[in-house]
Inverse folding.
């Protein structure tokens, strides 16, 4: 579980690194939210209840759902309350555009877990590095081809 929490803190630092206007309280909130989500997902995945009633696939689905709820609900709640909007309505909007990413992430986690058991950690790191480089190249080419679309997306 400690390694999972370390990944959450690292993700919070990486998330905050690109944002120049982040306040310490926002960083602390983001870090705690990610650590909470990561811890709940870990506990859900390793729960004997879910493993006994469907094996690793059910455990992974429950863990991904726990992570999604624990990561998006507090953010929607804080943003909704500070802006005077309905936190539930905001969460519903977050759900519509972000839930597919969490489903894909859970699938990739399953593939990565399977891949590590076959090739070891070095093989996984090599594949992830290749995916990262190809995605970075794709974004660069797309940004070069459609600069106005990227400028609009960056302004929102």
């Amino acid at each position: 579980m400690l390694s999972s929490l370390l990944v959450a803190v690292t993700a919070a630092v990486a998330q905050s690194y690109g944002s120049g206007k982040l306040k310490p309280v926002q960083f602390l909130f983001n870090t705690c939210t990610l650590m909470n989500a990561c811890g709940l997902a870990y506990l859900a995945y390793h729960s004997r209840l879910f493993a006994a009633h469907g094996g690793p696939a059910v455990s992974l689905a429950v863990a991904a759902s726990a992570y999604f709820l624990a990561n998006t609900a507090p953010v929607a709640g804080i943003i909704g309350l500070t802006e005077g909007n309905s936190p539930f309505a905001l969460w519903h909007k977050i759900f519509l555009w972000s839930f597919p990413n969490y489903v894909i992430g859970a699938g990739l986690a399953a593939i990565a877990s399977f891949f590590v058991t076959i090739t070891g950690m070095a093989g996984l790191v090599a594949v992830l590095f290749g995916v990262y480089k190809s995605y970075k190249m794709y974004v660069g080419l797309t940004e070069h081809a459609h600069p106005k679309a990227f400028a609009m997306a960056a302004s929102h």
